[in-house]
Write a structure and sequence with these properties.
Helix content is 44%, strand content 27%. By secondary structure, the protein is of the alpha+beta class. β4 and β5 form a beta hairpin.
Length: 99
């Protein structure tokens, strides 16, 4: 299965990177490495995760982030990568605003 990351999801990754890089130098790079590893796992495990608000949700192994994606015939389309520490109502609105 192929994995495609939408532009809004890329922006979510960028925001996470900036947040963690402000906490400690190099932590933002570690954040990106960990999240991209989780996203790459969708090539094998795409579609097995619980559906939340109409999207499959993969929880990151190292950071409190969730990867929301949908499955097309041969592609896992990553729609959002959001911080799990946010209010659920904020997450739901953010996901609903994505195409």
């Amino acid at each position: 299965m192929r994995v495609r990351i939408t532009e809004p999801a890329e922006k979510d990754l960028e925001q996470g990177y900036l947040f963690y890089e402000q906490q400690q130098a190099g932590l933002g790079t570690y954040f990106l490495d960990a999240l991209y590893t989780d996203i790459d796992s969708l090539t094998f495990y795409g579609g097995i995760h619980l559906k939340v608000w109409g999207y499959h949700r993969l929880l990151s192994k190292r950071f409190p982030f969730a990867i929301y994606y949908s499955i097309n015939p041969k592609t896992a389309l990553v729609t959002a990568i959001l911080d799990c520490r946010r209010k659920p109502s904020w997450v739901r609105k953010r996901i609903a605003s994505r195409p």
